[in-house]
Fold these 3 entries.
Entry 1:
Amino acid sequence: DTGVSQDPRHKITKRGQNVTFRCDPISEHNRLYWYRQTLGQGPEFLTYFQNEAQLEKSRLLSDRFSAERPKGSFSTLEIQRTEQGDSAMYLCASSLPAQGEQYFGPGTRLTVT
Amino acid sequence: AQSVSQHNHHVILSEAASLELGCNYSYGGTVNLFWYVQYPGQHLQLLLKYFSGDPLVKGIKGFEAEFIKSKFSFNLRKPSVQWSDTAEYFCAVSTYFGNEKLTFGTGTRLTIIP
């Protein structure tokens, strides 16, 4: 399967713990996006990379959130000191520049207890 | 900033009925428009997209959408739905400034009764 992959698919953690998610984009795609989706809502943009450069961060992304894409391939999203409000589906998508069309992964569902 | 409204939260139809899902966006400039679909247990997939040209665009599985600029709308249509169309449908918009981040609507849950 050459689509976008995300790991883990599910994560349950206790409040205050740190968690890290991984996204592997489609291999030739140099743009990578992170979104968050809560129940009953559409995905909300968090941040995006072009190659290894993080070019934009949403105001939704508090200081507890950090994302990296060190070699311009896979990306990680870390949440420090998790809160119950962080419970959501975290989606990754990738695309080619100016293509507009984004390909989404299956998401990582985070539950903070 | 742009925003997207989907007024139908849950639509229930019988098989073979015609479908129209509403989508309105708010943005004064040039936009790209998308419909994504999420089947139960699956990830978001692109149904169709509009960038420019013919405002009536056709997508996969017999879906089409019409961009009406004067109404800021991009409604999704299908003349005859099937049970397999049961899914959640999201309208999305991006503005081209070299970053095509998507702004999504809240989604419409479509249930098709056999």
Entry 2:
Amino acid sequence: DAGVIQSPRHEVTEMGQEVTLRCKPISGHDYLFWYRQTMMRGLELLIYFNNNVPIDDSGMPEDRFSAKMPNASFSTLKIQPSEPRDSAVYFCASSTGAGNQPQHFGDGTRLSIL
Amino acid sequence: AQKITQTQPGMFVQEKEAVTLDCTYDTSDQSYGLFWYKQPSSGEMIFLIYQGSYDEQNATEGRYSLNFQKARKSANLVISASQLGDSAMYFCAMREDNYGQNFVFGPGTRLSVLP
């Protein structure tokens, strides 16, 4: 079975550029999550969707970050304009939402802003 | 206040021995779930084991088991017969029913298995 698919795996770009991260969740999963992982702050939830609708975006750091889920099989996380402090690994995860079910993570996107 | 505490930033264990990774949590919910994930150096997050707050038995999955002590709010991961491939970061996470699908992750423990 295909897991959560993220692209790109690595992204290096200059400060001020727009960055778009992409995610395809596991088919049949109703919940999609975006996380950011840094050494300083660990794993932080940025936003999550249920049935393509954003439910909790309280973790989105600022207006430069936006996330969309236009359909059940695709989500994007955009940073515009990007800053060096946005450098991190960004994970997408999905789940069925059932209480005993884990979130399944993609392989992550390693983002470096120069 | 930290909802998930993992007090061991780093642990060493000899190959083939058992090791316990600590996790304590803080919640006022009666219904919650606890999850452990493994993150090897390659970076992916791998789900290992789940324990529900109402589960009477400690969860087991192969060489992984949970030492769940509800009154003490602890859910320690036990890895038996450690292998070199177990060297990784290990994260404890909690989902509280009153907070929807939010998972809160602990800071992690880095386990190194020595040959």
Entry 3:
Amino acid sequence: QVQLVESGGGVVQPGGSLRLSCSASGFTFSNFGMHWVRQAPGKGLEWVTFIRYDGIYIKNAGSVKGRFTISRDNSKNTLYLQMNSLRPEDTAVYYCARVPNYSGSYATIDYWGQGILVTVSS
Amino acid sequence: QSVLTQPPSESGTPGQRVTISCSGSSSNIEINSVNWYQQLPGTAPKLLIYTNNQRPSGVPDRFSGSKSGTSASLAISGLQFEDEADYYCAAWDDSLNGVVFGGGTKLTVL
């Protein structure tokens, strides 16, 4: 079965850095596009960034452009999110999520990880 | 302020039919397909509807989606207590070059 497991979250000071990982299993990771989506405490879903299956096509939300970098290692079935210059408003649960091949839209997400909490606070 | 606009809350009684609206623009809903997600308390979102009106395997046919112009709707018929959750619409936005979500609608089953 498809599993997405995030790790690397925690508490970090403003201006600090953190790298999230998402370990994928149960499917051929190299065939699927992947997102990071976040949810601040008590708030709605916010898209963060997307990477195509080959790692070449990448899109970022304006709120994280220049600070966050998505990458993937298809040989390790792992998705990453490098977060630099963190701000208190980046505090959220971060989900890694898979785009299915059947919908034709990058906005379709068929599997989500359980989420990992990132807290930016002094 | 979300790019896609949803009502913050809706409610209904068991057995009723409720609809949740999602309003967008010419750069998202009008030209791209709409997806709907259900998020139960304390859990990750779940895909409910994709490509405007398609249900993934396992989603009951009580859930249906539609789209017209720059708006979309999610309808839930035969409302059940287990449907109490937050619902989000989402679409790709060609101007922003990314996924846009609605602010979410909290559905209460009275």
